[in-house]
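#random but structural
TW: two for the price of one
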Amino acid sequence: MAKIIGLLQLKRMTLLQSFVFLCCLTLLIVLVVIILEFEWAENIQLRFAGHSSIIDWVLPSLVAAVLLTVAVAIVLMASIFYKCKLKQPLEILMKASEKISANDLGVQISYDSKDEMGELCQVFEKMRGQLEKNYKALWRSAEERKKLNAIFAHDLRTPLSVLKGYSEFLTIYLPQNNVSEEKLLDTIQTMRVHIVRLESYTEAMNSIQKLEDIPIQSRTIEIERLTSLLNDSARQIFGQRGKTFSSSVTADAKQIAVDIHFVLQVFENLTANGARYASSHVNIHYSVSQGFFFITVADDGAGFSDEALQKAMLPFYRGEVWDENEHHGLGLYICKVLCEKHEGSLYVENRPNGGGNVTASFAVDK
């Protein structure tokens, strides 16, 4: 059967072409067989011309043979058409549908044919691929949100415990007038600090959740114009810190399409971190290659600790820095979220000669 299919080249034909071809081929074969049957009937009549009882059965037998030939031909043609054009792709689609319904999106749908069933399998594969991509994104978002909620809850325990302790203290001793005015004011001020901390954490949590819902709006911009905008922001950031910076560009295109707001927000976070941890100078390198726009910020500071290399991109991770009014430990996490939404990534490492090195990438359209 495989040799016949290969000889007939049915897989290269559309469903209609193959159906018409098989009908014509079947009709031709049926005509040949019917002609042979008529010759057989004529030979019987000539051979048994003197036997009327046998002659009487020739015509009914011929009609029955012709009808049987047509019926068998139709069944065979339908069977060949089904096996050659429908059976394999339907089995592939059925198995894929069963696995997809069982949340197994890793199955690959492949059917080598140029007909409508081949196109259907290709469309089905694209749909499966998009479902897998969306499912992974949803799973990653759920995991990140779960992790974020756990870290958020952990960081809230301290201010809540402090507030609870001071509340119990005031509830017990304030009615007895055993609290001096100085102690009362000091307690209220401490409680106020922790309340502001809770408000800050809540606002930070809301901003992170909103980031995940921001759509990407890419627009074309010249590399020179984009790097000029970024350098202008860098001058403001490093000027406030009393640090210096230098920048360089390597690009295989004159213009790219990116979401400028995403890029600016990531860049400002990276340069703010670089200015915070640098001793005096930061190197910034922009590059475009292999469909991505890269921003690398390298400082001359102490670099990342072993713990920071593992946790720097976690939300609310601040290492040894605990200035709650300035640094919430969200900068690199926000950069990571935005880069991944832009189909890029964020990578942190230490430079061989000292200092930290952070690289953000964004998928671009040239």
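TW: number two ↓
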Amino acid sequence: MKKILLLALLSITLMGCNDPESAAAEAAQLRAEQHPERTYVGEHNYYIMESSEHAEFGRKKDLKVMYQDFPRYFVEKAKEWPKEDLNDASSYDLPRFQFAWANSSSKDEYESGIKIWSMKTDGTDLRLVTDVTVELVNGIKNLTRSPNNRYVAWADLGGYKTVYDIKTGKVVELSIAMSPLSMLWSEDSRYLYFERARDLFSRWDSETGEVNKVDFDVRTTAVNFDGKRTTILDFGVLVVDANTNEEINWIGVDRSLSMNERSLDISSIDPEGRYAWGSNPSFGFFFDIEKGTVKQMVDGFVPAQILGKDAHYSALSKMTYVTIVDRVEDKVWSWRAFSHGAMSGEGILYNGLANDGLWFKGGK
């Protein structure tokens, strides 16, 4: 009898050793012991916490460099990485950045392809937005996100436009011929307005799938909010009624300047269309759209490629090396978000009204 019990115990032990779940758990424990500084996400991916770095960002503008720990991501297998989930409220308690990134240089077509990713403005909660991949040779030049966070749209270098529905996983190809890059969402997220061909503008209906012509120009540097469409143009900001297209206000830069001095080479607008930024090698321009004013600056300013709510925060649009500025308290954070990989195009801000538009929690 004792011999039978010993054999049974030995059999159970051997079965446990061959159990895939047990083996995976042991391997995970071993990795954790060997690399205690890493937080693993799946078997092949992890992140570490590193301090932000010194950065001088601004045009003769004194900014206080802030030092704190941010995640640095090492992603070898995107298939193992968590996807953005519209039902996960914890992902949307801060504004988020969205960007196009090829996480690996491996020969695996999926892993080496450009995919859409997102993370919170404090660098946490990296998520894979869509499995749809784009070849590096085509790239992604322009990205948008609908106000309800459900739809992602992008244009590649040739202007071919695609929409991805995060809720259903459905992919829609809007333009199959080369076209300009401009895209803009309606305030209710139903319509995506886009430039279908040079000076030919259309809208895609997310409910019916229909594409129809519209009779107004579409710019990416624009926002639909509170019934108004506010657009940054080459020499100023135009505000129109989003339903009638009637002009409400025009805020232009100083017309006595030369064309080069008043053109807005870098521009951005906050999520509510209350403030806008424009700059060129000669001047910076800050637009208070509610007041209808523009402040012209020669020095002592910080360019804004991405502008947050109330113009409190701004950021550079390259997400490999994140640079964020608190424009109210003149602070700057800079950190390396990724260990490797290749970015394509520029990052954008979405979910911008979360946390009252503040990009950090806890009063940072």
